[in-house]
Amino acid sequence: MESALFAKHALLPTGWANHVRLCFSEEGNLGTIKTGTKAKPGDHLADIVVPGMANLHCHAFQRAMAGLAERAGPDKDSFWTWRETMYQIAARLDPDALRAIAAMTYVDMLESGFTSVGEFHYLHHGPDGRPYDNPAEMATQVIHAARQTGMGQTLLPVFYAHGGFGGAALSPRQKRFGHDLDGFMALMQAIHKQHPGTKLGIAPHSLRAVSPEQLNALGTAFPQGPVHIHIAEQFREVEESYVHLGEPPVRWLLDHMEVDARWCLVHATHMREDEIRDLAKSGAVAGLCPITEANLGDGFFPAREYAGKNGRFGIGSDSCVRIDLAEELRLLDYGQRLQCQTRTPLAPPNTSSGRALFECALKGGAQALGQNTGALSVGKRADLVTLDGAHPALVARHGDAWLDGWIYAANTSPIVDVYVGGHKQVENGRHKGRAALQAAFGQTLKRILP
User: Fold this and answer.
1) Which among 208, 207, 287 is positioned nearest to 252, based on CA atoms?
2) Which of 125, 228, 267, 431 is catalytic?
3) Does residue 228 carry a catalytic annotation?
4) Half-sphere exposure of 24 (CA within 13 A, CB side)
5) What is the pTM of this model?
6) Measured between alpha carbons, how far is 13 from 24 in angstroms, rounded to an integer?
């Protein structure tokens, strides 16, 4: 572990500071932070330092199908047709394959500037739906992948009970995702026992897959920790929610559950004005995944209206079709520009778009994962990203223009090093374990893909 890092410039909670020395504690947190000082012998040196970002929504196994669902079918393609390809890939994954795929996914995230991930994990059982002897067999693989790569992780085991609204039965291809309440409790107990240091939340999959009674039971059984749920991603889901619940999904959830700062509503793409207002008021985080949402044709999240009500949000890679921190933020902003036909719709007056987006995503992501991250301040985990001040998109710029250059103008990544808990995981833009993990990933895909 490097005991200290000296940066010419660092983004602190108070703004940009110069000649900053950040000391790391034995626990991997930020100890003292001094500005206007000098480097000491042995310090690691950096041009520009910013906090590491939380990736609040990830299905790591889906990285195996990146680019494999882009062929047009005979009818109109949508999320629902994409899901068929996902089911085919999921059916081929064993524990070893899941671990190799998750590790490569986390390597790509770390190199992109993500230092923690919310793993929305629903690949629980064998391909035929029969449970493994160890209920936590598949969860163990993604936990080990995070530890192997040095990625901070909040594991979000998914409760998935039904194949649709109204208590529809799981389809044969969904059975490896499914639990009843007793089975899910056994899974959570097994994870607690086998991996006591793991940060845990829960993830009721969606209002399609969890009945109101089950959702209430989960709330009673798990009164603390993060709660993540897919919601209002597709118009079809909204329409079916009206039929079965009498309200659109976000409205129903806000009216029937104690939605607060523990919650992360993933996507929340299709909301009425009252839902936007009350979601922002709740203190929950909207989990936005712009690259995946664009890839699936989900629609545009009402970010301008939501931000105008001080709503909280973070970003995630979701299907991991492409992993790029800067592109997630850029696409979120550009989508709003195209809709509003105006520039800088998400930046307050006289502020940088890049800075506004970056800091909102930092805060929302850390909150959603329950991680002690999101800022370079004393006591926070020492998750940080160093940037190359001589990069063509950053050179001759200052302050917020460094973030704008990275997010909007960089054709290649300006990231130099990435630290998680004070440990350097990425050096000179490359993860220290990339060669071996990429080889394992390649061998795994050759084995599982047709």
Assistant:
1) 207
2) 267
3) no
4) 21
5) 0.97
6) 17
What are the tens digits of pLDDT across the range 54-99?
999 999 999 999 999 898 877 777 787 888 889 999 999 999 999 9
Give the C-alpha separation, 15 to 168, whole Å. Answer: 52
Catalytic entry in 318, 333, 400, 404: 318
Tokens 């035929």 map to which residue? Answer: 128
What whole-number distance in Å separates Cα of residue 144 and Cα of residue 142?
A: 5
- Which phi and psi angles does 283 have, rounded to 5°? 85, 0
User: Are the C-beta atoms of residues 110 and 386 closer than 8 Å to each other?
Assistant: no
Task: Give the integer Cα–Cα distance in Å for 385 and 51.
Answer: 6
Tens-place pLDDT, residues 100-144: 999 999 999 999 999 999 999 999 999 999 999 999 999 999 999
Domains and CATH numbers, the chain: 4-51+375-434 (2.30.40.10), 53-369 (3.20.20.140)
**Interatomic CA distance for residues 9 and 70, integer angstroms:** 42
Tokens 């990830």 sit at which residue? 58
For residue 64 the two structure tokens come to 């195996």
SS3 readout for the chain: CCCEEEEEEEEECCEEEEEEEEEECCCCEEEEEECCCCCCCCCEEEEEEEECEEEEEECHHHHHHCCCCCCCCCCCCCHHHHHHHHHHHHCCCCHHHHHHHHHHHHHHHHHHCEEEEEEEECCCCCCCCCCCCCCCHHHHHHHHHHHHHCCEEEEEEEECCCCEHHHECCCHHHHHHCCCHHHHHHHHHHHHHHCCCCEECEEECCCCCCCHHHHHHHHHHCCCCCEEEEECCCHHHHHHHHHHHCCCHHHHHHHHCCCCCCEEEEECCCCCHHHHHHHHHHCCEEEECHHHHHHHCCCCCCHHHHHHCCCEEEECCECCCCCCHHHHHHHHHHHHHHHHCCCCCCCCCCCCHHHHHHHHHHHHHHHHHCCCCCCCCCCCECCEEEECCCCCCCCCCCCHHHHHHHHHHCCCCCEEEEEECCEEEEECCEECCHHHHHHHHHHHHHHHCC
Among this protein's residues, is 267 annotated catalytic?
yes
CA 49/CA 39 separation, integer angstroms: 15
